[in-house]
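Q&A log
Question type: sequence-to-structure
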Amino acid sequence: MNTDPPPGEGAGTGTPLPEVHEPGASDSPTDDVVLVTQTTRFHTSVGVAERQDDLSADPPEIFIPTGTTFSVVSGSAAPGGWRFAGIPSGAYFLRTGNTFIVTSAREVDIGRHRLGRPDTVFSNTIVSPLQLNLVNMAPWVPYGGLTQPGSSLQVASAQLDVYGAVDVFDQVLDGQTHLLSNNAELWTSTGYMLPVFEADKGDRLYVSQHDQLDAGTLPDGTPLGYSALVRSVEMGAFDFVPDGFTPMPLTGVMRPVPMTEFPIEWRLPSFTHYAGVVHPLATASLPSFYVMPAAHGLSDGWVGYSGEALSLLLPRGSSFNFTRRLSYGNPFPASWAMVGGAQYTFRVVEEVPDGSGSLFSLSGSMYTYEQLDSLIAGPILPRVSPPRELTIDGVPASTSREVGSASPVIAWLPPSVGTPSAYRVAIYRFDTRFRAGVLHQNLYVPGSMTQVRLPPGTLEPDAIHYLRVTAVDAPHYDLAHHPFSSLDRLPQARADAISSFFTTP
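Response status: OK
Response body:
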């Protein structure tokens, strides 16, 4: 049962955190030691390798709430991790990097899952020029807009953590079935630098062609196309060191891949219904549906990202029951699984409070990720809706203003649909130089909590910020003990509530 007061009550008065009881957490007042470890698990086609990481380069910290303030405990190195002594029972804030975890567990592993060999060497670049020599492609279809996506190329690997879309700068003619070009680029989209490929370790790449398939028409009669993987080649093992200048070779004979057809009933009005909960002035933006490969299966969750096998975008603001039969191709090993994802984004356009008069679009989303067969077993509906009545120190967060506190209380009401396992409070800082929102800090709190006081340093002084508070419905999520690795497990649904801009003195 939720023991927090309604949003706004107790804000600024030092309302204590509720007791957070997790399985395995000790409640003994003499058990004052917390051990933080970081275990990275690397997933490949030949199994999983574990590595215990050294935390000394960026050690975690513990923030203990004491009324309206926090005391900070630094801890020290210990066998296998980082040890904190003198931590009282009950909830505390564990900081790692730019993320805070609210937990009362005595042992916390902040490790993650990764794709690829644990001995992978990474380059110093995220982009590489390409030398393309691909034949036997499906006839190329030029891009024609949101609902006419045309043809495209992607790469992924079963040995390394690499995925990216291929940008071809030469004109590819309608119906062309071969591609010979040195005017192309690959940008990695995994969050890491491009890896070094080593032939003697079996490093290879899938090169896949996505083609435009027919999904019938929209309610107004407009033709609707979507993008699906139709041909692929897995290149032989090769050596390559990305340096940003030397072209990476992408060569091979593209082959048709087995196609799978499936039905989908996506009830879009059930998503657009929540626009005003995301933000009182939000409007429905873009609905999208994806089928994505899960490399090496789902035994440890959906680890990493290897591109899409299908992607479908619908026009902005679409709100009708989308019922179709769609198809995708699958060139990957039988041990890989397929994940389905349905997402609807919402946005509110606001004036940036810097005197420039410029406008900026703040966005939030509702989405569900699940094993594909489970997702399409029935109509696609929201598993969780956005948190309600978001406030900052008791004032509606949709009110653009200057906050007077360095550590304000963020509060909300639970969603009307779903049972959150956790909430994520993401604080963004608006960069006035680049006119963009930059993720500044994250806080994850248990689903039993509906308010949290921001720790010191979470907000920057004399800056423009906005919030995104997300309800996370993930039945296998273990926030207390494995806050990052267990978030890979499916099913998972999220729904955002967003604030307006606010400033700090």
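Response note: Residues 1-30 have pLDDT under 50 and may be disordered.
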